[in-house]
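Q: Joint fold for the lines below.
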Amino acid sequence: MKIRIDISSDIVGKPIVAESIVETGALLNISQAHLDSTRGELVADIENEKYTDINKALTKRGAKVTVLDTPIIRDEDECIECGACISVCPVDVFSFEADWSLKVEQEKCIQCGTCIQMCPHNALSLER
Amino acid sequence: MVKKSIHDINRKIEEGNVRVVTAEEMVDIVKVTSVSEATKEVDVVTTGTFGAMCSSGAWLNFGHSDPPIKMKKVWLNDVEAYTGVAAIDAYIGATQLSDSMGIEYGGAHVIEDLIRGKSVDVHATSYGTDCYPRKMLNTTLTIDDLNQAIMQNPRNAYQKYNVATNSSNTTLKTYMGILLPNNGNVTYSGAGVLSPLSNDPNYETIGTGTRILLGGSQGYVTGIGTQHSPETNFGTMMVQGDMKRMSPEYVKAASFEGYGTSLYVGIGVPIPILNEDIARATAVSDDDIVTNILDYGVPSRNRPTIRQVTYGELRSGMIDIAGKEVPTSSLSSFKKSRQIASELKESIIQGDFNLTLPVERLSSKTVNRPMKQTSVNPLVGDIMSESVVTIKENASTYEAANKIMTCSFNHLPVVSDKNILTGIVTAWDISKAVAKKEFDFVGNIMTRNVITATPNEPIDIAAYRLDQNLVSALPVIDDKRNVVGIITSDDISKLLARRGNL
Ligand code: SF4
Ligand code: SF4
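A: Joint structure:
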């Protein structure tokens, strides 16, 4: 399964991911990492049966773990296909088709929520 | 030179042999033939735009209640409408926010709900007169219960729009959407090749009385829009239409996070091809329309222009800002703009839509001036304390505590040997360090991400930044990041108190 690990500024310098891997023996396959002095965000694959352990280990150290199983949903009745969401998505979920329809590659979504704030028509959500 | 009159074209519409193309199609026609061929061949070019038009609203007439009321104030679904016109007329503006729901729901949503046929709660209050004795009224009604619901938008369909980016290091929430820090994205608006006024930039055919598509049904241009500024190619128009005949597909409420509500309005304007000049103008393409990218990171009316850009570049999805590829987002819908231009084309071909000659053309001379301000805005430099006490990174926590005690400042900007700002340390940081028994260097307990001000910024901007970041002081720095002063929320409240006494 895919998870996102958010690390806030006060612990961003600490080796919490390494410690959690050592503690649980879970193999985290990190596919994306955005780290700077203010915060960290990692996206990683992990075996399903190791999830509970790694979640516990990371949460104990102050990180926040989100399971990436509810990608962005677009309400097609509300969406006007403006494309406002395109430029704010960090992983390029949105793009235009040749006829200026909005293409949504849901499977790329890391559930950061930025596009929800951007959409002027309240057409995007992460809830099921 | 080919010349046609509106009557010639209307006759062709009646006879069913009119040639209509969209402004997008016209670009290619002129390219593969010639301007004179295109003038002969094409009778009407249709344009379309669908985007956020904040300056929109509607006149509503409620009919008289029994006993009658002269509405002093009126709310529709908790959104206040303007009532300073007779007893039961009110103007509901798109950006007026709901008293209870804030920016989630506003006048734009009331307009959309009415067009959708939904019922709306009306609450009105008054002072009571001999002729209008009633002081309070509550009712629920739909658009069918209103005598009139006339959309009248003071400023719509800007010829083109400025483009937004944000060079500051914080995310901004604006009417141009979310602007990511460090020029992380660019947002733009407008239909470019399909934009009505960009296809008739000399206003040869558009003016008072021009019949248009507004919100999916026939409406009119009533004249120039407010802020009409033809000399800078930022023309606008005022439009009017019967809301009772509009379709929710072309009138949609929007809410911009951190800003407020707006109304997306669909407008289609037909341009009769009367002569070659008009034909040439309608051949304008996205690559020909140039606009400015403004830096919204600078919170002033005179936002610096970062560079010029064409709609063609914007629509490609990526543009270059200072050597960096930056993704673009449109706030208006090109697909819907296209749909509007095509629908207008179809209804002209079907004979359902005749063209009109304007009674008066839009003026091509006005310029838009900034506000005349009679009170001067003080600048940060005017009220900051210049006697700011700073401290070095390698000083001890003890030294910092001592300085705070003796100089009675709660905030010490931390500077490098060259007096460059590197952080800030507060009495609170020191207490925290002491509580944790970390008698460390200042460099280890300070906050590195310092919110700052500059001496020539207006106070209101600094005050806004204090509020937004929940801090109580801003070190004032020059362009080399040297600390030249400090401004605190106390300084500002004192100033505001003085202003209040004037
Ligand atoms: S921002 Fe919203 S309305 Fe615009 S294209 Fe994206 S989902 Fe659709
Ligand atoms: S939630 Fe984040 S990652 Fe997912 S589509 Fe929206 S912006 Fe992209």
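Q: Anything notable?
A: Chain B has a mean pLDDT of 93. Chain B has three domains: 6-53+152-181+190-361, 63-146, 380-499.
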